[in-house]
Amino acid sequence: MKFKSLINDKLQAAFCKIGITPDMIAVSDASKPEFGDFQYNGVMAVAKKLGRNPRDIALLLADNIHGDMISKIEVAGPGFINIHIDKEWLGSKVTELFNSKDLTIEKNQNPKTIVVDYSGPNMAKEMHVGHLRSTIIGDSLANLFEFLGERVIRQNHIGDWGTQFGMLIAYLEEVHQNSSFDELKNLEDFYKLAKKKFDDNLDFAKKAREYVVKIQSGDKHCLELWKKFIDISLSHCDEVYKKLGVTLTKEDVRAESFYNDMLPSVIEKLELSGLLQISDGAKCIFLPNSEVPLIVQKSDGGYLYASTDLAAIKYRNDVLKADRICYVVDARQSEHFAGVFWTAKESGLCNSDVVLEHIAFGTMMDKSGKPFKTRDGGTVKLIDLLDEAVIRAEGAIKDRANFSNDEALSLAKIIGIGAVKYSDLSINRESNYIFDWDKMLSFDGNTSLYMQYAYARIQSILKKFDGEIFGSVELGSDIEHKLAIMLLSFEDILRRAANDATPHTITSYLYDLVTIFMRFYEQSPILRDDVPYNVKVSRIMLSTVAARTIKKGLEILGIEVVDRL
């Protein structure tokens, strides 16, 4: 349910009753228990605009806010409105949550088509840690939009059409003639071998350059080799995606080559719009507030990244009918996307009402504050990082219970991968963050392991409960009241995270929810013999809804739960 929206609607109705139309209404969580459950502090801005006393307006509002969900309204200070939510109403709504399949979260009745462009691995190299953030941030957003009922189209934009591919397929041809593809087991080494031959052998370099032209001209033999190389490269990516547990598949790949035939029409559209200018023989778009033009075609007729990005926007606008296009790409590309987005809108390649967003993110750093590298300064392969996460997770849980070897390994895979994901997603995506194994695999603090442990503890309680669950939730204590408020706020949190494209909004909520649940668990006995049966059932229902909410929140983030830990 849209909990805060209900309160905001009542505030809106109260404003209407006193003849005032505010610009925006939004309640926030009260900072202290004595201030109620929610607080509205927008009266001062309204009063200043109208030249009236804010406390007088607040008192009028308080007299006109009604509804069975509200037990008490107070005016504090110069005009703060403190809102207390009725316990019986809260209990009835948590009971509805317990009896519902999807936590009473409404699916959008008029779903939008949202394209999420993420991951974008290099075809000539194996995925490295630099691809991690785009992949898991993009995947969590795609999951979130989908859960809220939007029509989501995942797109994995890969570079497969540059000049380097002439060199790579020429070398692949030689490998193929020798009937061995062992070199391709390690793409990094394959690339280095091809590059060395390109630099050392003039005949090979000439052949490689000729192959670039042949690929782009549609030569059958060269395209077959090129496709073989791309397929092998993508198989490396698929291995990472499966281990990481993300939802991207080969069907989601839209490579640069996919847009190749569209590029001339994009240039023609830009020419017709009057935006194109020639500079040193190149076709450029001169952008407002930027000294650097957007080059869309070189003097020799070749195309650039901007050309392909514009073609992709046109395709997503015309064919996919996107309402919102999210590009999950690191913050260093902000200037590039600002220019591409402006050009797409000004030229008519994209409809004016389509939302184009650069979902920017910062860099993953080591403990010294430097970009994450191997000990010798090399690039860390993503597959190696994930394997290490599983090994470290197995060490973190080995002394906690009597797990069999198979069970320990299965748990370690869930916990290790979840730890890597959650550690990233719990940080504001625009910030750089420190990659710290000890912190991410801790049972304390804002970690996935803390969430998984809380979920496992609830499952243990539910298994021990021997009785029939019927009746309703009865909130007898302040901590139960607070837990109910948190549970009913889940949809508000998801919608805010979707609107702002901020997965950390969800992780912050989960941490607060689990922290409150742990306090509830300590203060409110559930299975003890002296607890009245109706109270016991009520607390079991609260715990069940908490477990479902934790599970759904982690599921949206792409993280699994465990029943025992």
The fraction of residues assigned to DSSP E strands is: 5-15%
**Structural class designation:** alpha/beta
Spatial strand sequence of the major β-sheet? 1-2-4-3
Low-confidence parts lasting 5 or more residues at pLDDT below 50?
Answer: none
Ends apart, CA distance between termini:
31 Å
Determine and state the CATH class of the domain at 87-105 and 375-565: Mainly Alpha
The CATH homologous superfamily of the domain at 87-105 and 375-565 corresponds to: Isoleucyl-tRNA Synthetase, Domain 1
Instruction: Assign a percent range to the helix content.
Output: 40-55%
Alpha carbon gyration radius: 28 Å
Write down how many β-strands occur, each being a DSSP E stretch of 2 or more residues: 13
User: What form results from the Cα inertia axes?
Assistant: globular
